[in-house]
Design brief:
It is built from five helices and no strands. The protein is mostly helical. The protein has one domain (27-161): Helix Hairpins (Orthogonal Bundle), CATH 1.10.287. The longest helix has 42 residues, at 15-56. The protein is elongated and about 75 Å long.
Length: 170
């Protein structure tokens, strides 16, 4: 049966914890929106590059370089996301050093765990929300990477067919 006492105990957080939870939710959404905006730009750039590579009749390896650059940009976007979290932790003085804040943010954002650091007790609700934002952004990147991989495969196949037609028959 539904236990009201248990439910009220679960939600009996002090104001500081509500603030941490609320801030964490807002930041998770904003960082996810930032990430999706960045992904949109990266994927658009990638598609334009793949189209130019295909139309130029370049060597198929050129498409692989474009694919590698796209992966690098996606990785860099995740690093920026972690840095945003780190700056927030450092700015709120939840973690005293910027290097420690970066370490904590990267560990939590990737859902690997805390390592050897934890947030102050009143702010610990922020940690799972950081991890959730990482899950959201990695899911977005993964879905876009599937599309980029398909485009890469298509361009390599077209360029390979093109280069075979260009070779003289012996």
């Amino acid at each position: 049966m539904f236990n009201i006492e248990l439910l009220s105990t679960l939600f009996a957080l002090d104001a500081q914890r509500y603030e941490a939870f609320g801030l964490g939710c807002v930041l998770a959404v904003l960082i996810t929106l930032f990430h999706v905006t960045g992904l949109t730009e990266i994927v658009g750039w990638s598609e334009r590059k793949f189209d130019r590579v295909r139309s130029s009749g370049a060597h198929p390896f050129t498409a692989s370089l474009c694919f590698a650059a796209t992966i690098f940009f996606m990785l860099f976007l995740h690093i920026v996301d972690s840095c945003i979290w780190a700056l927030i932790l450092y700015g709120l003085k939840l973690i005293p050093g910027i290097h420690d804040a970066l370490y904590f943010a990267a560990n939590t954002y990737t859902s690997l765990g805390y390592g050897d650091m934890i947030l102050p007790n009143d702010w610990r609700e922020l940690s799972p929300l950081m991890a959730i934002s990482g899950l959201f952004t990695f899911a977005c990147t993964t879905s876009q990477l599937f599309d980029v991989m398909g485009k890469h495969r298509s361009v390599v196949a077209a360029l390979t067919r093109h280069s075979r037609k260009q070779q003289p028959v012996a």
